Amino acid sequence: MASASIPVYNRSNNPLENSSSQNASRESLKMEPLAVTLLPGEERVIDKDIMYICPFSGPVKGKVFITNYRLYFKSADADPSVTLNVPLGAIGRVEKMGGASSRGENSYGLDITCKDMRNLRFALKQEGHSRRDIFDILFRYAFPLSHGLLLFAYLSQEKYEENGWSVYKPMEEFRRQGLPTDKWRITFINDSYELCDTYPTILVVPFKATEEDLRKVSTFRSRGRIPVLSWIHRENQAVICRCSQPLVGMSGKRNKDDERYLDVIREANGTAKLTIYDARPSVNAVANKATGGGYEGDDTYQNAELVFLDIHNIHVMRESLKKLKDIVYPNVEESHWLSSLESTHWLEHIKLVLSGAIQVADKISGGNSVVVHCSDGWDRTAQLTSLAMLMLDSHYRTLRGFQVLLEKEWISFGHKFASRIGHGDKNHADQDRSPIFVQFIDCVWQMTKQFPTAFEFNERLLMTILDHLFSCRFGTFLYNCESARDTNEVRSKTVSLWSLVNSDSTSYLNPFYTPESSRVLYPVASMRHLELWVTYYIRWNPRIRQQQQSPVEQRYMELLALRDEYLKKLEELQLTDSSPNSSHLSNSSAPNAASPTQHITHLHTPF
Which residues fall in a compositionally biased region of kind Polar residues (predicted)? Predict the structure, then answer.
């Protein structure tokens, strides 16, 4: 994680005293002052002299510090100094490198694979099992759930001015959209997660559908994830509904309740034909019939049209990002860069996801309601609905609105964060791991590049979100669904990421933001308009010239600082004017002269 996104906290008590590791207590006498300030609740576990095999500048001697939250390395005498600051949650794999009999310099040590596009390698001396203690401690604290320990989010004692858990209130968000209406109602049928254990407790469904109808439909949808409303267009009343695939199977089962339910959704705003967007390639949807799934056939859903969006599954996306990592870390093969990038297919997948969301948004703008699903409705479906909503609704393009969008479409509707990221789990080869959310944030970044004035938030917010997707410092992205978060008391026992963001909101604001409430954004989803997000994927490589803040943005920030300085001076003059000693000055001024406060309102930043 970028060190810039870790605020510094003062901590008066010595965390060594509370160390839970016997190894740590033995090592504590040898510990020296740590070069980075610990977070409240963070405790040092072990220090060790070590050699960092830097892929950019070669072997670097230094000391590694491991806490219950991070791995921190600081070089001893390198110039410039080399530091690493890695949250343990970002570590995906820890392996021993070489053995006691290994020959060659720096051939004995540790190999660490990270989830944030980098790998780390450390070498130790080949004597007396020198790596055993650090390997055991690193393995234990990087994968706490695999060792019966708590994730750091439950140990953190951070306090913030803002309570991030209050950002998203479902009823408030539905009211903002103008719900309920005479065609759509709010139901609490899932209050105890009995209808669907991976859905939120508050759902919006067609007014005509009874609770019994919902129960019947749930039996015909994978995981009970029935079609429910995500967003409604205020003017034309077209809706985006999301769900999972129907359980058609090889025998072509039908469910009259499901067919009628989709027709009720269609009728709600007089849509001639309901468009069902199936995110999968058609061949995959057909293959899913073999495992009891399937899709809505034209013969049974006669008032609907089915469109396949050809977005590949979680396994294809995982392999694509692996290939991307291979070509950007540690070295970029610049002579074959374009062909190498093309061979990863990463931007091709970004294009397909964006293209699908554009189709959804366009259909809604035209007044036609849509239903979106993939297989289970928690991966590609979340990508499509949230991106379409970002295009259609300017509220989601604000700093807080974007937080609401993530809480609503991703967190509350059960994107499987724990399975896809593997928080605290040592099973790095788990086939459920996949960068679906990373891919979505990449799509958002592509939109911010194409519409630089349309988003209130900046790139730093997107990178902070991805850093803490892995870090386990906050409870926001933990577990697979709301029911699991309730069981594990996430809201009462952990801090929200939005507490951090909203307590320092100015750091995440885009200075070029221009609010346009009715504007629909249609990004260009062609390969020549998409670019690799270099400042995220290649940020660890010092040899690659990272995209610095643009000269225009830099100048704008300087002018804002200058304006603040002038305002401060005006306030000081105002205070001087109001003092008794300066009363003769104010009496002698012209009666219609503007006061300093009046002048303030007319100050404009020259740009």
Answer: 10-26
